[in-house]
Amino acid sequence: MDKLKKCIKCGLYTMKEQCPRCGGETRTAHPPKFSPEDKYGEYRRRAKFGY
Ligand SMILES: [Zn+2]
C-alpha cells in the first residue's frame, strides 16, 4: 500500500501527506488513474475517442 508522493512545492519524493522538508502539500507521484481531478477527464476522453 506504499504510495510514493511528491511535494508540489520542492519536488521531494516522500510517503507522507506533507513534505518533511518544506511542509508543502504532496501529491501521489505515479498512478494518474487514482487522481480525483483526472477522473472525469478520463471518462470524457474515453467517450470522445470511443475506447
Ligand atoms: Zn517540499
Description:
- With 51 residues, the protein is α+β, with helices and mostly antiparallel strands.
- The protein has one domain: Rubrerythrin, domain 2, CATH 2.20.28.
- The chain has one helix and three strands; from the N terminus they run E-E-E-H.
- Strands 2-1-3 form a three-stranded antiparallel sheet, with no helix packed on it.
- The longest helix is centred in the C-terminal third of the chain and has 11 residues.
- The chain starts with a strand and ends with a helix.
- The mean pLDDT is 80.
- The site of zinc ion has 8 residues, from loops.
What would you say about this model in short?
The protein has 51 residues and is an alpha+beta fold. It has one helix spanning 39-49, and strands spanning 5-7, 13-14, 26-28. The chain has a 3-stranded antiparallel β-sheet, with no helix packed on it.
List the defining traits of the structure above.
binds zinc ion; Rubrerythrin, domain 2; 16% strand; alpha+beta; 1 helix; 3 strands; 3-stranded antiparallel β-sheet; 51 residues
